Structures are given as C-alpha cells and as structure tokens.
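Quick look at the format.
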Amino acid sequence: MACMATCGRRSATIDRCVGELSLTTATSEAWRTHRTLVLIVVLAAIQLVWLLPAVPLLEPDEGRYLDIPRHMVESGDWVTPRLNGVLYFEKPPLHYWLTALAIRAFGLTELAVRVWNALLGLLGVLGAWWLARSWAGREAGLGAALVLGTAPLWIGLGRLGSLDMAVSFFITATLGCVWLASRATGGWSERWLWWGAFAAAAGGVMTKGLIGAVIPAGVAGLWVILTGQWRLLRRVPWFSGGALFLALAAPWHVLASLRNPDFAWFYFVHEHVLRFATPVAERQEPWWFFIAVVALGMLPWTGLLPAALRLMPGVRRWRQLAEHRDGLFFALWFGMVFLFFSASHSKLIPYMGPALPPLAVLIGAALSRSWTGEAGTTRAARLAWTLGPALLIVVGAGFALAGAGRIDRLGLGGHCTPWLVVTGTVAAVLAATAVVSGWLGRWRAATVAAAVAVVILNVAIAGLSLRLGEERSSRGVAEALKPLLQGDESVFAYRDFQESLAVYLDRPVGIVGAVGELAFGVSHLTTGQRADRFPSVDEFRPRWDSDQRIWLSVGRTWQRKMAADRLGHVEVIWQGRGRGLVTNHPLHPPGARGPGSGVRVGGRQADDPKGTSRP
C-alpha cells in the first residue's frame, strides 16, 4: 500500500510538472506571437506615415477631398457638400466629416486629409490578423497581417487622401462581423456582432454610397445559399439591426434630398446606376485590368494565390461546400468585389481595396501551412512562391537604374539619386534571397526576405511621392502666388480643374474652358455666375485683354494651348515641373528695376520683368 501511495504521489507530481510545462510553453508561444504581431504593426505604421505630412496634395483626389471639408468648416453647412464653391453630390459625407475634424486638429494641411486613412489602414491589418487567427490559428493570423501590412496597394491606399481606404475598412468590418457572428454560439456577444455588421454597413454607405451595403449583402447571401445555412438567417436581428442601419445612414440622405430637389436623381441614378452600367464616367479599362492590379498590388505574395485556393479542396463538389464554408466565405468575398468592379464600366485601381483583406487571410493561411510543413514542397509550389519575389527583383533593379539616371520614368530628370540606388539594390538582393530560399523550401527565411524587400520598396515609393507631388500638385503655384495676390484679383485654372489649388489658396478659383466633374454644380449657377467663375475661352478672352490683372495656373502644354486660344501678352511668374503661373500684365512697369524686381522663371529670378513667353 505504501508503495502504491508513493507511486501515486510521483504520478501526481509528474502530471503537475507536465501541466506547468505545457502552460509555460503556451505562454511562451503567445508571447512570441504578440511580439511578432507588434513588429508587423510597427512596420505597417512606418510605411503608412513615412513622409506623410510632407508630400504635396496629389491631384485630383486629395485636393477634392480636402476642399469639400474646408467648405464645411468655413460655412458650417455639414449637409450639402461643395467643391470649389459649387454643389458636389457624387459621394456621401462621412469621410468629409472625419477630415473636417482633422482640419480642426491639424489645420488645413496635407496631413488632415490623410491621417484617417493611415489609421484605418492600420486597423485593417489588425482586422485581417483577427479573422485569419480565428479561422486557421496564430500562424495564419501573423501571415495575414504580414501580407496586408506590406501589400503595396493597401499601403498606397492608406497613404492617399481618398475614400477607398475608408470604404475598404467598413466593408471589411461588415463582413468580418457577419462571419464571426455565424461562428458564435448565441447570447449578447453574437448580437453585438450582428449590430456591428449593420453599423459598419451604414458606415460604408455613408462613405461611398450603396456599395457599402450591396457588396456585403451579396457576399453573405451567396455564401448562405451555397452552404445551405438557412437557419443563420433566423439568428440575424433584422428589426433592431435594420433600425440601427437606417438611423445611421438615412438622415443625411433625407436632409440632402429636402434641401436639394434634384439630389436624389443625380446621386442614386447618375452616380450609382449610370456610372456602373454606362461609360459616362469615361474610366473604361480592358477586362484584365483588375487582374494586373491585384497581381502587382499584392507583391510579393501574388504567387501564393494558387496555394491559398487549394485550402478548399472540396469546393469542386457541390455537396462538400458546407465542409469548407469558412475558406469559401473569404474566397467569395474576394471574388464578389473582383467581379463586381470588373463588370462596371468605371474602373480605377483603388476599387480593389475591399478585395485585399480576404485575399490576405487566404494567403496568410497558405503561408502558415508552409511554415509548419503542412504544405508540400513540390516543384510547382516552389515555382509559384518564387514568382512574386522575382518580380520584386525587377522592380528593385528598376529603382536602382532610375536612381543612377539610366531610366527617366520616375520624374527624376535623369539625375543621380543615391538613396534610390541603395534602396533599389538592397531590395533586389533581398528579393533574390527570397527566391533562392523559397526554391530550397526554406519558407520562413524566404518570407522574411521578401517582406523586408517590399517594405524597403514601399518606403522608397513614399520618397518618390515627394517628387511626384511636384508634378501632380498646385502647391508650387500657390506658394509663388500668395505673396503677390491682392484680395480683389481673379485666379483661374486654365483648361483643367486643378483641385488642390483652391485648398492651398484657401479660396475658390475659376476655371477657363473646362468644367469636368463640376458640371452638376455649375448647372445650378445663374448665367452670370457661370460666366464669371467658369467662362469659356471666348468669354474669358476679353477679361484677359483688359486692364484687370488675371492670374492663371497652367499645365504642361500651356504655351501651345494659349496660342491656339489667342491669349497673348503672357508674363511667366513661376514654372515648375508640371505646373506654371502666368499673368496678363507685368509685375512692374517697364524700366522699374530694383531689388526683388523681375519675374521668376523656373524657380529663378529673371533679369527681364516682362518675362519670357508671349504666345
């Protein structure tokens, strides 16, 4: 008996030790996971905010989406959006409101229009981590966060002051809540998830229109049909959720309709139906356009798409769909966004934003299988993996050559840019390391090398955006004009709508010979107002020839265009890479020479105050 008691005590001690060891191992694993996640989030944050306040506003989106909130802050009218002083009903106002708050916090600066998107981009990375972790475990969560947090398209959208990152976030939140609620076991936790889905859908609608609800409804509905989860529909709090959705999304639409009688037709019919079904927006692209966007926007992870789709081996058989319903959900999510916008007559690169989070979840799960040895190391798998890093080698080499002055495609003017040579070379070497490691089946080493390479390139692109801003912004024109502009003098943009000019000048500007996307708002002006602010060239010519000083912001080919329009006696004040500033009268009378006199041409002071060009 004593022997048995002794054996029992030893067994208990062993069990306790095993339990403590298991707990210690689990704690160590959780700590390693959290540490890795923090590192990924920090890397994503660096890419999102690097040089963010310094880059000039990029035409057309950033000027537009900062000018509209500027009007709201100045006028106090938070219902009726106005762009350059005229009605603008193309999009709902949620992002405008958020940017207006940022203007109050940071002033009328470039950061104000970008800060929310950078934050939402970071939250999207955390959302992808949570969804992949809930589906396929810790490693998959880390893989999804790494993929989305380094994908060039996602980082680019997070740095750009447009609506696409915000609607991508809200669609991700909507479908993420739907999927998590479908896995819940009832109670208040499930109810809150459903309410979260309805609230996020309302946020999507208030950001970019009906797609904020249509796309999530299409994904969830098709998923229920294909997997036969009809009972799931009975778990949705339709009444309270629908009431929450309407309470958040309906008031602005009602108020805007009451204050503007033709709002409903333009907003719902023109901006939703006609823009999708007809080429009215003049943004047609070939059928393969979004294939290229996704392939390049997800580098260096593009080659893992086949491995990600193989996570659902049973989807070839109809009766097995329910067995793989979680992977199917993310595949449907990506496919619905891709096919929806591919069918549209209006195609732009940022439209693929909502498709990236589910793709990151699928690729993250495929990565985790590689890391843990669950995935095969066949020749086809290794070849697929090396495709993305191989393309990165080409991109890195291109950056290095451009920095050396061998390629003049990045706006560098053929000059040597040492930092670009270094970053491009390092990225290409790391990408080559990833190719070799992947081919040898060393998946973790390949993943790290590829991730660091694409992070370096994303940071380099942020640096290049400073140079791009010189061509795609009116900041240089505004800086040259502000010291010279008198309060009663007119400022016009010539032949195109330079949307950042009004922001930098903090006042509306006129447009000569062009209306573009302002057509709806201009149509609501009186004849006199239209001729004064948006004249045709023939209407503008007498004003240009008069004694009144006119300031004109011009584009690249302004000399040829002004000559064709018979607009003479042009005085060049400032000339940049993509924009210029001219006026119709000399700044100083002939013979008046002195310190500071003369006209600035190409950023340098000219000797002749009468300037240079007389088309």
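Next, a different chain entirely:
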Amino acid sequence: MSKLSIDQKRIQDLLSDKKSDFLIPDYQRPYAWTEDECDTLWDDLFGFCFPNNDFEAFDTNSEYFLGPIVTFKNENHKLEIIDGQQRLTTILLLLRAFYDKFQLMQDKQSKSIREKISHCVWKCDEFDEPDMDQLKIDSQVASDNDKDEFLNILRTGIVSPAWKSNYAKNFRFFQDKIQELVNTFPPFTTYFAARILQNVILLPIEAESQDTALRIFSTLNDRGLPLSDADIFKSKFYSFYSKLGKKDEFIKRWKQLEVLTEEIFSSSRSAPMVELFTRYMYYARAKLGVKDTTTPALRLFFEGGNNYKSLNDESVFNELESLANFWKRLYRPDEFSDKTKKQLFILQYAPNGMWTYLTSVYFLARKDKDNNLDEEAFNQFLDKITAFIIAYAVIRPGVNALRTPVYPEMVNLVTGMDVKFENHKFSKDIIDNALKSFSFTNGRPVTRSMLTWWAMQNPDQIVLDKFTAFDIEHIYPSRRMKESPLKNSNNFESLGNKSILEKRINIRASDYRFEDKIRYYLGKLEKREPTKIEDLKHLAESLKDFTEVDIENRTRRIISSFIDYLDQNQLISQ
C-alpha cells in the first residue's frame, strides 16, 4: 500500500518549514489564474478575516480551507507539485505584494509580518536569515514562456510595465488592492496579512511517488483537467532533450505535434496526444513480441518499471511525428488513390477502433526512409483487415474478442511478415449461416460497416466525403411496414432493406412510398441534390417498386458478395 503524508497546515507553517522546497515540474500546464480568480480569492479572504467588515468580529480560532497541495518528493528531494500549482502560485504572489507594502512601514506589527512572509517566500541560511536569492519555489514548466517573470517578481518585487503575463497582472492586482486597503482601512492591512498566514489552511498531501500523486489528483480534482499521460511523457522527453542540448528544439516540435494531433484526433474519445501515444504503444508492444491480450494502461506501459527509459530515444519521438503525419495524410485529397480512400471510408465505420492500431503498426513497420508506403501492398492490407474485422464482428462481437487474432498479426508485421490471420480463417458455411441469421439492427456498429462496404463495391461509386453525415435508410420504410407488413418480418431489418444515405436526404425520405423515395434519391423533388450512393440511384432508376422479393434478392447479393470478398482475401478456410 502506498504511504501518504497528510497534515493540515496553516499557510505560515507550511511555507516557512525548512523542508518546503517546491517545484512546478516541466510537464505542468502554465499558470492560468486571471484577475477574476484573484478578485474572488481576495473577496473571500477579506470576508473571512473581517466578517461584515467588522474588525473585531473575527474568531481567532476560525479557519479558512483553501484546498489541497498534492506533491511527491522527486529524486532531487524537491516537492514536485501535482495539484495545487495555481493556488500556491497565487498565494505567493499575494504574500510578496504584502511584503513590498510592509517594507515602507516601520511599526512593530508590520515588521513582524514582513519577517514572517520572508520565511515563506525565501529559504533561510543556517542563522535563520532569509536568503533573497533562494526561493521556496521554482518553475520548470516547459510550455510556460512567462515563468521567469514569476520568479523575478518573487525575488525582487519588481514588475515591468511591459510584462503582460498572468503573473504580472495578478501581482499588480494585489498591489492595487493592498494600497486600496491601506487608503481605506489602514489598521486592517497588517491584520489581514496576519490572519491569512495564521488562519488560512492548506492540506499538503505528500505521496511517495509521482504515480501515486497523480492518482490522488485524479480523485480529488473535480474542477480542472487532471494531468494526462501525455503530460508525463512530455516531461520525460523534455528532460532527455535538455541533456542533449536540444531543449528549445524539443519544445517547438512538441507544440507542433500538439497542434497536429488536435487537428486529426479531435473527435477521439481520448485527448489527442494520448490517442497518438496509444496508437504508437501497439507498435512498441509488437516490437517487444507481446501477444498478450491484456493491455496495460498507457502510462504503465511506457514507465515499464524503469522510469520511462524507452522514451530516452530520439527515434521514438521521430516515429511519433511520422505517425501523426501519416494519419493526417490519409485524409488529404491527393495523397492516395481513390481505391485507398474508399477503403479508409469503410474503415471509419468499422465496428471498433482496432483497425487504427493495426494500421499504425503497419505504417511504422513498412514505411520507407521518406515515410511513404507501397500503396498496392497497403491496399491489400486494408482489404484484408476490412474483410476480417467485419466478419469477426458478426462471429464474435466486441473489441476485446478481436485482440486475440490481431495482436499476433502486429508482431508479424514488425518481423516482416504479412497479415494473414492464418489461425482465424472462416468456414464458408459458418460465416454464410452467421450472416443470414444475424440481426443487422441499426444500433449494431457492424450494420453500418456492412452497408458502407456494400456501397463502396459499386464500380461507379465515387469517393465520399468523410465529413458528410450518413444515416441508415430503410428502403421499405416503417410506415409502409405498418400498412403492408412483410410476410417475413425479419426482412425489414435485413441488409437487403438497408443502405447508408446522406442524413439530409434520409430525414426527408424516411417514411415515403418507394415511388416518392425515387424522387428523393435522384434529387427530382424540390430540385435538391441527389444521393451520392450509386447503389440507391441504381435501384431508383431500375425499379418502380421495392418489394419483399427485392429485399430478399438484395440480401442474398450482399451476403454472397461479402463471402467472395473474404475468399479473395484468403480468409476462407479450405
């Protein structure tokens, strides 16, 4: 069980402790508090210290809880801040502003408070005298270009008029509020600072490791975003590239990679950078020869029991950049042939996301020195995984089931072998019966996969825009089904009665007779644009009505064609 040190402390006790040596690490996000948050904090603290603006109404035993500070002691014996960076930074700016004001005051109380604040801001020498060159806090935030302003403000109390950072704005805000307090209620000023030091409470939580501290943060934090795995990975790369003398180059490249992943993975369930690392993880696993279907958590995999040693390698970051650029190129209009783009359009509706991991491994394993692929071989790969993933989703639904056949193929790819699924081929009779008996309801992802695949089989089918919204169309609609029920009610949800159709058309054509649907499919009603699904246009041009016989015939054609597709990709067992 992980050990924790938890001890509620007054601000003065926490910051003046000689062991308090805080570090805002490189992977943290920049300081984000604005004057609005500082104004709220000031009003809250003032209301606590002077109830109803009454100087004497304060209860010296009362406490104001400001929040937790989650840290762990790193290898340099500094308290690395995981949570509480924003509030601790703001409190130090506030205390430094008070310190400056008390420098001009010579009364006993002001001198006493100034001395207490000095022990909170600066480290002390062996005679317990503050060393003005040694702060109690340091910042190494890689993406914060203004961190030096923060440290300079704490050291000197000087803020340049040219500084526009949140640090500078908030420090000026506190200076103005303190001066306003001095002008309005002079006696309040020292009492306000004293009560903040002695009655405002922080809850320092010191964990024994970074991982434990991060877990605590994720549990406690319900306001901001917890640090992602990518933030941790960034810190490891940052440290590695800094030792190589390439810190600035890395920061620039990381920012570019963040922008790129935001563009291409914005719809991902994971944070964009986390999605990139996840796709890369499968390649790294495959290189290790791992076929185990139990996938470790992303951070745990890269930590590897050796403090992220695998990330101390320039080739890893180069490969991450190459992988991100590959996924961007996949959807550029002129990068690949129509054949490839059609395959990718089908796969974006795959019943699960496993194809993205498998394709990422394929790219990293087969790319040339210019990060290009042999497109003919790539198309063969896409055909095979499309056929396999759809068929497997019918036989054994669920993404977890797919791990068993897919993980060994990832290992095969990095060892130079082709994807074959040799031990998981389909019996023609079994897959035929499975497809005929499977309930292709709209709620099942594989239904859309099958219908998208079928639409792309038409030789006249153009490449469809991946950003166009498509629905599943019942060609024999539900209203007609109520008025003229099919003899076999199962035919209503069969593949033969369905097609993908642009959402804008599907909404209008949903419950019309076939003769009316024809006009919607062909764009002859209200002069609207026709569907781009060639199979539907062919039906509209060749049939006057769409009957139960047509549904059954079309179902047989789709299933027969898909089994032929499996056979063409050597996925039917002999």
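The two ends are 54 Å apart (CA to CA).

See the schema section for token definitions.
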